[in-house]
Design a protein that fits this description.
Blueprint (H helix, E strand, L loop, with lengths): L3 E3 L13 E3 L1 H15 L7 H13 L4 H8 L8 H10 L6 H14 L6 H13 L4 H24 L4
Antiparallel strand pairs: 1-2
């Protein structure tokens, strides 16, 4: 697999041209960790999968990465092993916070942020050494984004 240039995993960095190359294998591992967290409730909804695929494409994933993620067996995955691989990969920026943010976004894409998904996120955050306050704040940011999107759709008469 070829490498992928990623500026930051959330796509929120103001620095646009200094991306660090990460291997496609690490990129796949990151995405598979997201699927495993979102599947903690026993299913990956079409909305969750679509959100993740669009996110990956937006970050520059190639067809090979997309296909590998699509075919990933999240039901039999070991989240601890996936996050351990990511810890060993020396990813750019605050990748642990980015993973949490992305996991919450994927898990909420079906508008059913299930208790088991929340537990998987909490467990992952602790495993990665993220403070409970950070997890709470990231959840809050995602909730505010969702609320802002609903307000905008309402103002525009779209929903």
């Amino acid at each position: 697999m070829s490498d992928v240039r990623v500026t930051d995993l959330t796509g929120h960095s103001e620095k646009k041209d200094n991306g660090k190359k990460i291997t496609s294998d690490v990129f796949v591992t990151y995405a598979c960790a997201l699927l495993t967290i979102a599947g903690a409730d026993g299913e990956i909804s079409p909305s969750e999968k679509n959100y993740l695929m669009n996110k990956l494409i937006g970050l520059g994933a190639n067809d090979e990465v997309i296909n590998e993620v699509k075919n990933f067996d999240w039901e039999n995955a070991n989240l601890e092993a996936l996050t351990s691989e990511l810890q060993d990969a020396n990813l750019p920026g605050n990748w642990a916070g980015a993973l949490l943010y992305d996991a919450i976004k994927v898990a909420r894409a079906d508008e059913d942020y299930a208790l088991d998904e929340k537990k998987a996120i909490q467990t992952t955050a602790k495993r990665l050494g993220l403070d409970d306050n950070i997890t709470f704040a990231i959840n809050g940011v995602v909730e505010m984004e969702s609320l802002a999107a609903r307000i905008l759709r309402s103002l525009l008469g779209c929903g």
